[in-house]
Amino acid sequence: MEYRYVTSTSSMSTFESPDWIEPREYQQQAIQSWLDADGQGILHMATGTGKTVTALQAASKVADFVEQRFLLVIAVPYQHLVDQWAADLKDFGVQPVLAYQSRRNWQPRLERELLELNNAVRDIAVVVTTHRTLSGAATQQTLKRSVGQSMLIADEVHHMGATDAQKGLLDEFRFRLGLSATPERWYDEDGTRVLNSYFGGTVFDYGLKNAIDGGALYEYYYIPHIVELEADEMEEYMRLTRKIGRLMGKAGGADAVLEDNPALQTALFKRARLIGTARQKLDLLVDLFAKVDNPEHTLVYCSDGSLGVDEDGERHVDETTKMLRDVCDLTVDRFTARENQAKREALLTDFERGEIDVLTSIRCLDEGVDIPATRTAYILASTSNPRQYVQRRGRILRQDEGKQFAVIHDFITIPDTGQHPEMLTDEEYAAERKLIENELDRVSMFAECARNHPDADVRGIPTSNRTLQSVKRRYELLTS
Fold this sequence. Notes:
Oligomer: single chain
Strand content: 15-25%
Shape: globular
């Protein structure tokens, strides 16, 4: 079949793009690339570039072409995204079936609409569900009753490469559209291969540099801050590193599969949490806020662990929130999994209005939450998974009225530099060097598209006095 991107002229009123939505040129190119690939493929688009509206525009083209008996299924990783997609679908004249939570709340309506669809009583049925619900046998059995053409939009498609989620990749979906800023699964070649095979690979690529150069996202300054592990933290880091080495050796070295080695997985998580909760980070954070004239619209990403080496200590996010309130006299609230959906929505509204200066979070702001008002972000903790920091960066760069650019402060954890590398054992030196290498991988990615060089002194933005160059030099990490 040959498809062309054209302005909709269909008389069908059940799923039409509103006149006031005008796709940007790159969005039109994305849609056309997907149509040229016979209605299958993944759109690799930077966070904040309008993947949702692009996907709905593409689906409206298919609906025009199919004309009747068209089933559209939109699968998302989290429940709050179901509601976000439903809100966007209203602009297209659609009241979708929201298939999540209790089945008795949506199963009867879904069955009724599919019956109407099969009997040509309605032209289109739209379902928004979660990856988990879609992978369930009961949901699949119901959807397979549709006798017309069907389409799957997989939001944050990388999640669907997980073993259980793959069950939702039904052969019955004739049209397949995957969306992600990070389509490749981290350390999961098999999952990535399954996604590429099912969707047909990436058919359109619009990365961060393209988005910034094209004006779809704002430019940003990137300010790294060096934080040292204290003596007891470094001791615990070395203990965990030695344990990880032993466990990896038993599990097959670099080929070790984490899912099959819970002890190794636990040790890696503990070490990552230790890096994320280094004590000096909070002191530095307070110092930086003291230099800021207007702290409004700021995000602080915290660790999911406890402060320091004590696993029974106060949660890092709680201590961070408390210090910013008490020491910096700021209006601060937590935005975590412990807050219910209604509370989160209220927090976002207050944040947008400027009634809350700072939101502290762990992972709840990583995917699918629109917070374009954000001007500044402090990243106290980050995983080594590129997907996390790519998502965070794109979320901070979204356009908003009165916003000219964004600022990202990144806290880089290194060993105690008071201890000279030449005084270390080979094992200790290798462990410290690896820690720094992992941190610098993130620095390189963030710095690549920033307005400033990471060692630059940026006027008007609080910085630390330490530079990365000296650390790289000490551990022989300078590149020619």
